[in-house]
Amino acid sequence: MNKELLAHPPGETNPNLLDPQQPTINREWRVWGLLVVAAMAWWIAWNSLQPLADWITYGLLGLSPTSAFGSALAFFLYDVPKILLLLTGMIFVVTTIRTFFSAESTRQLLGGKRQGVGNVLAALLGVVTPFCSCSAVPLFIGFVEAGVPLGVTFSFLIAAPMVNEVALVMLFGMFGWQIALIYMATGLLIAILAGMVIGRVPHIESGVEDFVWQLSVGTASSEPGERMTWPERFGIAWHSTREIVSKVWPYVVAGIALGAFIHGYVPADALAGIMGKDAWWSVPAAVLIGVPMYANAAGVIPVVQAVMEKGAAMGTALAFMMAVVALSLPEMIILRRVLKPWLIVIFVGVVALGIILIGYLFNFII
Is the pLDDT of residue 15 over 70? Predict the structure, then answer.
């Protein structure tokens, strides 16, 4: 006999038989309740960071607030959990939103779009679908096969790593929403304009390796599949959050450790002289230093915060950060599989020039 009938004697109504969606609804309510509890715990921990860091440094260890080591340690003990909390919370939200997107849907949306409109749309999609540099080659091939113009493709490839959730979260936590918004706006501007410029390079198609044009990747499945429930979306988001945080936390610790050293020990006049507004060569020098570096936003932004506190100009610091994040050497090596060297040189040169101009602009207006 059916177990549902055994559990409910004759004369009594089995709610699960009347409403087969009831277990799913109950599960969704439990997941939402757990999410609310987690959000409250996150908020309590966030508001306890500064008092706890000060108590450990100046109370428990008895260090002086005016000492270099005390200042550096307090900086480190406050910023490490602060950034990890920000990353955990914001990446969970962003990756939940990302469950509504896919590489295939992005390709379909950009396919057939002309220059200009396509560049703007590609840059915006690069923000909400921030694929990592390891996805650069398959995405590039997929975009080419889908008929996306090369200039539009470059706008996406620039915006995706440059204006990513890690950079925005860390900038928001360290400098406030104004700086985060400025970074996002300038990053989008560089991605749009650089893509438009690269798209107008004569015979640009010849800069793509021949095998790319011969591949057929348009058979990738674009079936929408069943609509995911919220618990499923949250499960995917939590898995992605753990994966991302587990990969970037060493960069967070290393970057904040370096930032703490600069905060406590490096004289303000020294950095102000090198990266201040008065040094006209500081912006291109910062970009040249940043291009070959292997780092990500989690590692470089704490360093940017420390050098700005020591008197570095905002435009110079932002130029350095953009060069590190958007023009990393590993991404160029990966792109070499599908692009010929002369097109990579143009790509790096156009983006670097845009970053330099943005750096000078912010040094001038701020």
Answer: no
Of 5, 46, 27, which is closest to residue 234 (Cα–Cα)?
A: 27
Asked whether the predicted pLDDT for residue 169 surpasses 60, the reply is yes
Burial class of residue 313 in the structure, from the number of CB atoms within 10 Å of its CB (0-12 exposed, 13-18 middle, 19+ buried): buried
User: Cα(296)–Cα(251) distance, rounded to whole angstroms?
Assistant: 8
User: Contact at 8 Å (CB) between 297 and 170?
Assistant: yes
Q: Chain-wide mean pLDDT for the chain? A: 75
Q: Is the dihedral of CA 147, 150, 155, 161 positive or negative?
A: positive
C-alpha span between 201 and 339 (Å, rounded): 14
pTM, whole model, 2 decimals? 0.60
Structure tokens at 254: 């290393």
In this predicted model, what pLDDT tens digit does every residue of 287-298 receive, in sequence order?
Answer: 887 776 655 566
DSSP-H helix ranges across the chain: 3-7, 15-18, 22-54, 68-98, 103-110, 117-128, 136-145, 150-162, 165-175, 177-199, 210-214, 230-265, 268-275, 282-290, 297-309, 314-326, 329-335, 341-365
152: left (phi over 0), alpha (psi -120 to 50) or beta: alpha
339 phi/psi in degrees, rounded to 5: -120, 145
Evaluated on CA atoms 27, 28, 29, 32, the torsion sign reads positive
User: Per-residue DSSP letters for 272-307?
Assistant: HHHHSTT-TTHHHHHHHHHTT----HHHHHHHHHHH
Please state, in angstroms and as integers, the Cα–Cα distance from residue 148 to each residue in 120, 184, 267, following that order: 13, 24, 50
